[in-house]
Design goal:
Length: 467
């Protein structure tokens, strides 16, 4: 007998919390690994010099853009995978993975070609400083190859999590990230007889570790016959109806991530006009902040899986209940993390070998970022965990892009170039976009219009066409 779509079973609150921890903890740990590697990279590059630190930070904006494109594609696919998994329709799940994989690989190859052929042109978008451009060009011309590996890793890792297996991506990421740290130490600083390659060494370490990661991930998925071990015939069999349905739902997610990431990159352009010291401070501040965000990433991704599975099971009232609980958990977790970041801000910049000016700048910035984390946490769970899992991708796109482009970007340039704000005040000014998303997001949740069951015709004509 199927559970009622409108009732929560006895003891379900404990099951809800244990499921949240079961899904979120491995995702948190994997994001912590990634952020820790970025943190350690930044420390090692900081030993080389502040110009190298600025160069790698700006060069990585290309990787930031393409990674968020992958995130958009994989998040869109995760909406379907979570709901199809809840409906136990593996064939449709595999075909959605194939669509997402092809889109991601096309973007990866295009970005790799750009980074390999015109790296200096890309760097000059952000800065005119010749030393920073030269070092950034060295980094881009090596790291570009890793984009293809990253595309495959993100699709399969997201699919695994959406089926409830968050541990496999964690274990494989642990191996790959550990390799990355060791290679960084050997190649950036030239230890144990290895050449001192500095920024090129950081890029080469990324390429090698990503190649190992994708190899291990695919080996595990197909040797162990994981639920996401899609046969080639399913990955390349594109049914017109399913492709159309995927694009209608997921194109707003992809556009959201692309234009949001362009907005973040535009912020960096504004920051770069404030000088190398500000760029270096921003890179350190954001590396530290990312360590605090790993918990929130885990909660938001786990939220998407839990709510998507409930919608796939046609338990709509339970999905609404989960949404309210998870938004509250996100906000209060963000408040705790924000307070911790602000309290530790005087000591966190110490390992980065910063000048006194940049260290003070970074301390003040971390205090401001700590104040903003609770509302950012709510918005992260809202967009990634709730709206997208409910298929409400057009509204979430509107909320994100209106906030960034109509509020955040103008605030960044006005604050940096017109008002001459110090960076920690500028962060607060740009944060008005988060307040906007919070208000309209609350209104959307209360309306109940965010839930869309994408698999409700899974046994009808569409499913028959793709089975």
């Amino acid at each position: 007998m199927k559970p009622s779509p409108t009732a929560e079973l006895p003891g379900a609150k404990q099951e809800f919390l244990s499921r949240l921890v079961f899904l979120a903890l491995p995702i948190m740990l994997q994001n912590l690994l990634a952020s820790s590697v970025s943190f350690i990279d930044t420390i090692m590059i900081g030993v080389v010099g502040e110009d190298a630190l600025a160069a790698v930070g700006l060069a990585n904006q290309m990787f930031f853009l393409i990674t968020l494109f992958f995130f958009g594609v994989s998040s869109g696919a995760a909406i379907f995978v979570a709901q199809y998994w809840g409906a136990q329709d593996r064939t449709s799940m595999h075909r959605v993975m194939g669509i997402a994989l092809v889109i991601s690989l096309v973007g990866a190859i295009a970005s790799s070609i750009l980074s390999l052929t015109v790296p200096s042109t890309i760097m000059r978008i952000f800065t005119d400083d010749p030393t920073v451009v030269r070092r950034g060009t060295e980094y881009l011309s090596v790291v570009a190859v890793s984009y293809v590996f990253t595309a495959v890793v993100m699709i399969y890792s997201t699919a695994l999590r959406s089926t409830g297996d968050a541990r496999t991506p964690l274990y494989i990421s642990l191996l790959a990230m550990s390799l990355n740290v060791v290679l960084n130490y050997l190649l950036i600083l030239g230890k144990f007889g290895f050449p001192r390659m500095e920024v090129r060494g950081a890029a080469l370490a990324t390429v090698i570790s990503r190649a190992v990661e994708v190899g291990l991930l695919l080996l595990f998925v197909y040797v162990r016959k994981s639920p996401v071990a899609a046969p080639i015939r399913h990955l390349v069999s594109f049914n017109r109806v399913l492709v159309k349905r995927y694009l209608i739902t997921c194109l707003p997610v992809i556009l959201n991530e692309m234009f949001w990431s362009l907005g973040m990159t535009t912020y960096k352009i504004a920051y770069s006009r404030m000088g190398i010291e500000v760029i270096a401070s921003v890179n350190v501040s954001e590396s530290i902040q990312n360590l605090f965000f790993v918990v929130l990433m885990g909660i938001s991704n786990a939220s998407a899986i839990m709510i998507g599975n409930r919608i796939g099971e046609n338990r709509m009232d339970l999905a609404r209940l989960y949404a309210r609980r998870l938004l509250a958990i996100g906000f209060f977790t963000g408040a705790i993390l924000g307070a911790l970041l602000a309290l530790l801000s005087p000591w966190l910049p110490i390992p980065f070998n910063l000048s006194d000016t940049v260290a003070l700048m970074t301390t003040l910035s971390l205090g401001t970022l700590g104040i903003m984390i609770p509302i950012k946490a709510f918005n992260m769970v809202l967009v990634v965990g709730v709206l997208r899992s409910g298929g409400d991708t057009r509204f979430s796109m509107f909320a994100e892009l209106a906030g960034v482009w109509f509020i955040g970007v103008p605030a960044a340039f006005l604050g940096a170039l017109v008002f001459g704000m110090p960076i920690h005040i500028l962060y607060l000014f740009i944060g008005l976009e988060e307040a906007f998303k919070f208000v309209i997001g609350m209104m959307r949740i209360r309306s109940g219009k965010w839930i869309n069951r994408l698999t409700e015709d899974a046994t009808g004509p569409t499913a028959g066409a793709i089975a």
